[in-house]
Amino acid sequence: MTEEATARDRMPTIRDIAERAGVATSTVSRALSNPQRVNVRTREKIEKIAAQLNYVPSTQARGLSSGRTGAIAVLVPDVTNPFYFDIIRGTQDQLKAAGYTQLLVDTEEATDIELETLRKMRRTSDGIILAASRLTDAQLADAASRHPMVTINRATADAPTVLLDTPGAMVQALEHLASLGHTKVTYVGGPTSSWSTHRRWKAIEEAAARRGIEATRIGPYAPKTSSGAAAADAALRTGSTAFIAFNDLIAIGMLARLRERGVRVPEDVSIVGCDDIFGADFCNPPLTTIASPIEQAGRTAVSMLLAQLDPTRGGTPRKLAVMPTHLEIRESTGPAPASAKAP
């Protein structure tokens, strides 16, 4: 293959343009990225040659010269968890509409992976969206000081935050169970590193005290269906007649284990999940759960991040957005067994 044929087969570079125009590569770079810095005759010559060669500017090179990459990193603790599907869909749609590329990273519920990813993404993205971050307040503060960032379901004073009001719906769940005669309720907690699990338990604990309900907490449990068997066994030992799980995955795993043990739901015990993931209404029985505008949370997070990146949008960027939630009542909750009802 001749040198000329090889040149035709590969993508043209600014070096090729420079050789044909008889100028330095730096002049070509300026003519294509900052045309006002090159005299008109030279610029027109370079542009004509670039068109003849079908030259396509490198996105990466443009990013290096402008300081922007055109990409936003979205970090989630577990990409297989259906809860994050809608967040990812929401961020993807909103970023695409704004002309950005989404870089999706699964941090595997691991703090060290999340920290290392944040460090790397500072070089390859214009901003970061952290969903359900497992980092400490100090770690988040440091990350926010180094790169534009928005968090979802993890409040921090150092970065804009989108919160799903699941604690408020946990109170709704407790009120629902109380109305069915349940006097002993167990909260099945999520990972210790989850900021949300502590907020949810506090809401349940305070609401239970107001209603005179005995509330206990077990866990922590990984937010997976495989955790449901151990969670169900432990929950039954508490003597409670109703269980509120950290998320739907744990609750679905509990339903399967209770069925194995011959415990009827909701005749013997009631179960409430959280997130209203796809399939929660297909369970046996269909799962009572907390529903949230998850996709909208992703869209809102992107809007808040873009406001940081582009101050010309006007107005003061929002620091906090709280998304409403509600209890979706299905067939996994029912009246407390007669023997467990308060006299």
TrEMBL record:
SUPFAM superfamilies according to UniProt: lambda repressor-like DNA-binding domains, Periplasmic binding protein-like I
A GO term, aspect molecular function: DNA binding
One Pfam family per UniProt: LacI
CDD domains, sorted: HTH_LacI, PBP1_LacI_sugar_binding-like
InterPro entries (alphabetical): HTH_LacI, LacI/GalR-like_sensor, Lambda_DNA-bd_dom_sf, Peripla_BP_I
Limits of the HTH lacI-type domain: 12-66
Keywords: DNA-binding, Transcription, Transcription regulation
Protein name: LacI family DNA-binding transcriptional regulator
Statement: the UniProt record of this protein carries the keyword Ribonucleoprotein: no
